[in-house]
Amino acid sequence: MAAKTKKKSKNAKNTNTKNDNIQKTQVAESKKTSVAKDDKKSTDSKDKKNTKKSDKKKKPNIFVRMLDFVKGVFSELKKVNWLTKEELAKSSGFVAGFVAIFTFLIWIIDSGLGALAALLIGLK
């Protein structure tokens, strides 16, 4: 019994030191990225002016963009998993049955409320 507790405490110490090492490396990495961000901020303002002018020149005309859009649509349609005839018939039958049941229920409720309204109007 005592041997088991010693093993657990050793494992706990190992995990604590591992967690400490991980935290230290994460802190070091975050410091590096914050320094890099500060360096980028100074050059970003200059680059924004230059990219705005170059973006207008690089934009393709409307016909090229429409052609790219249509090509993208066809490539996405090739990736679609289409239903088989049996799956389509089963799904369509389920939807038609569901619509029929709710149409019947709404008709019953509407008839009942209409009869109730006629009864109340007739009492006055």
From TrEMBL:
<dbReference type="GO" id="GO:0008320">
    <property type="term" value="F:protein transmembrane transporter activity"/>
</dbReference>
<comment type="function">
    <text>Essential subunit of the Sec protein translocation channel SecYEG. Clamps together the 2 halves of SecY. May contact the channel plug during translocation.</text>
</comment>
<dbReference type="GO" id="GO:0009306">
    <property type="term" value="P:protein secretion"/>
</dbReference>
<comment type="subunit">
    <text>Component of the Sec protein translocase complex. Heterotrimer consisting of SecY, SecE and SecG subunits. The heterotrimers can form oligomers, although 1 heterotrimer is thought to be able to translocate proteins. Interacts with the ribosome. Interacts with SecDF, and other proteins may be involved. Interacts with SecA.</text>
</comment>
<dbReference type="Pfam" id="PF00584">
    <property type="entry name" value="SecE"/>
</dbReference>
<keyword id="KW-0813">Transport</keyword>
<protein>
    <recommendedName>
        <fullName>Protein translocase subunit SecE</fullName>
    </recommendedName>
</protein>
<keyword id="KW-0811">Translocation</keyword>
<feature type="compositionally biased region" description="Basic and acidic residues">
    <location>
        <begin position="29"/>
        <end position="48"/>
    </location>
</feature>
<keyword id="KW-0472">Membrane</keyword>
<keyword id="KW-0653">Protein transport</keyword>
<dbReference type="GO" id="GO:0006605">
    <property type="term" value="P:protein targeting"/>
</dbReference>
<comment type="similarity">
    <text>Belongs to the SecE/SEC61-gamma family.</text>
</comment>
<feature type="compositionally biased region" description="Basic residues">
    <location>
        <begin position="1"/>
        <end position="11"/>
    </location>
</feature>
<feature type="transmembrane region" description="Helical">
    <location>
        <begin position="94"/>
        <end position="121"/>
    </location>
</feature>
<dbReference type="InterPro" id="IPR038379">
    <property type="entry name" value="SecE_sf"/>
</dbReference>
<keyword id="KW-1003">Cell membrane</keyword>
<dbReference type="InterPro" id="IPR005807">
    <property type="entry name" value="SecE_bac"/>
</dbReference>
<dbReference type="GO" id="GO:0065002">
    <property type="term" value="P:intracellular protein transmembrane transport"/>
</dbReference>
<keyword id="KW-1133">Transmembrane helix</keyword>
<dbReference type="GO" id="GO:0043952">
    <property type="term" value="P:protein transport by the Sec complex"/>
</dbReference>
<dbReference type="GO" id="GO:0005886">
    <property type="term" value="C:plasma membrane"/>
</dbReference>
<dbReference type="InterPro" id="IPR001901">
    <property type="entry name" value="Translocase_SecE/Sec61-g"/>
</dbReference>
<feature type="region of interest" description="Disordered">
    <location>
        <begin position="1"/>
        <end position="57"/>
    </location>
</feature>
<keyword id="KW-0812">Transmembrane</keyword>
